[in-house]
Amino acid sequence: METELPASQQNRNIVCLATAQALAGANSVVFYATGAIVGNTLAPNSALATLPITVFVLGMAACILPFGALARRWGRRAAFITGTSAGVLTGLLAALAVVINSFSLFCLAAFLGGAYAAVAVSFRFAATDGVGKARRAKALSLVMGGGVAAGVLGPMLVTGTMNIWPAHLFAATFIAQAIVALISAGVLLGVQSPAPAGEAMRSGRPLADIVRQPGFARTVFGGAISYMIMNFLMTAAPLSMHQHGLSQQAANLGIQWHVIAMYGPGFFTGRLINRFGANRVGAAGLLITALSVLAGLMGTDVAHYWVSLILLGLGWNFGFTGASAKIIDYHRPEEKTRVQSLNDFIVFGVMIIGSFASGALLNTFGWNAVLWGSLVPVGVAFLAVVFAKR
C-alpha cells in the first residue's frame, strides 16, 4: 500500500507540479511555434519542414519508458532533474543550430526537447502520489491546469525575444527557453512522493494481465487519439498560417489561445470527471475536437485558425484528462510507474505518425487535407468510447 501524504504536502506537490507544468509547457510551446518555421529555413527540402517537430515527438516516445524505469528505481525526483537538464540542453543546442545554420543539430535539440516533454507528462500522475482516491482526479486536473500559464509565457518568450538577435531569428528565444527549463528544475525540488516498500517495488501483476483488463485498451486508445490529433493539427497550423500570408504574431497568438484552452479547463475538469465519469468527459473531448476540424474547414482567415485552435485545445483537455484519470483505476501503487509509462509510450508513439504525416499532407495537399485526415481517427475513437459497453 502507498502511504498517504499529509494534506499540506499534497497541496505543496500540486503547486510545485502545476508551476513546473507551466514552465515545461512554455518550452513545448516555443518549439511548436517555431519548430516548423526554423525547420523550413534550415531543412534541405521543404517537405522536411516539420521533421524537427516529429523528432520532438520521437524524443518523447523514446524517453518515456527509460524515465519510468528511472523513477521506479530512484524515485520521481531523479527523473524530473534528468528531464529538466535535457530541457536546458534543448535551448542551448537549438540556439547554436540557428547560429551555425545546422538542421541536424536542430533536430538533436528537438529530440532532447522531447525528452524534457516526456518527463513533464508524468507531472499529472505524480500529483496523484500519496493522494486519496476521491481527490486524485482533481489533483491531476489541477496540475494540468497549471499549463494555462504556458499559454501566456510561451508566446511571450517567442514574441519578446525572436528579434533580439536580428541576424539569427529565434536564437535568443531558445536561450530564454533554456533559462526557463533551469528554473523548472529548482521548482521540482519541492516535490515529495511516497515510495512503495521494497517488497511492493518487486511485486505487481505482469503487464500482460494489466493490459487485458476490460476497458484498458479503449482508454489508452482514446487518450492516444486525443493527443495525436491535437499534435497533428497544432504542428501544421503555424506553417499553414505562414503559407497563407498571415503574420508570425498572429500565429503566436493562435498558439497562445490554443494552449490556454488546453490547460484552462484543468481547474474544473476533475469535478466533471467525478460527476459524470472519465469516459463521458473523454467522449465529449473527442466531439469538441471534431468541431475544431469543422471550424478549420470554414476558411483560412485568422479567425478560422484561432477558433479551430481554441476548440482543439478544449477537446484535448477533456479527451486526454479523461483518459489519464481512468488509467489510474487500472493499476495498483506498486505498478504505477510501469503502467503510466506504458500508457504514455503508446500515446506518444502514435503521435509520431501524426506529426510527420501533418507536414507531408500540408506540403503536398494543403491545409484542408490535414483537417479531413484527422476526422477518421477522431470518429473511430469517439465510437469506441460511446459504444464501449455495447
Structure description:
This protein has a single domain (7-386), classed as Growth Hormone, Chain: A, CATH 1.20.1250. The radius of gyration is 20 Å and the shape is globular. The mean pLDDT is 84. The two termini are 35 Å apart. The longest helix has 36 residues, at 7-42. The chain contains 17 helices and no strands. The protein has helices spanning 7-42, 51-74, 76-100, 103-120, 123-126, 133-145, 148-161, 171-188, 198-202, 207-211, 216-243, 248-263, 266-276, 278-297, 302-327, 336-365, 367-386. Pfam families: MFS_1 (PF07690). Residues 215-390 form the Major facilitator superfamily (MFS) profile domain.
CATH superfamily: MFS general substrate transporter like domains
Bin the strand percentage: under 5%
Helix residue percentage: over 70%
- Span of the ends, CA to CA: 35 Å
Q: What would the average pLDDT be, to the nearest integer?
A: 84
Stretches with pLDDT under 50, minimum 5 residues: none
Q: What CATH first level would be assigned?
A: Mainly Alpha
What characterizes the major β-sheet? none
- CATH third-tier fold name: Growth Hormone, Chain: A
Question: What overall form do the CA principal axes indicate?
Answer: globular
Helix/strand-derived category reads mainly alpha
The tally of beta strands, per DSSP, is: 0
Q: Which architecture would the CATH scheme give at its second level?
A: Up-down Bundle
Number of helices: 17
Order of helices and strands: HHHHHHHHHHHHHHHHH
As for the number of domains, it is 1
**Rg, Å, rounded:** 20 Å
| Quaternary organisation of the protein chains | single chain
Organism: Kosakonia calanthes
Protein name: MFS transporter
Pfam family, one: MFS_1
Transmembrane segments: 49-71, 78-97, 103-127, 139-158, 170-195, 216-235, 255-274, 281-299, 305-325, 345-363, 369-388
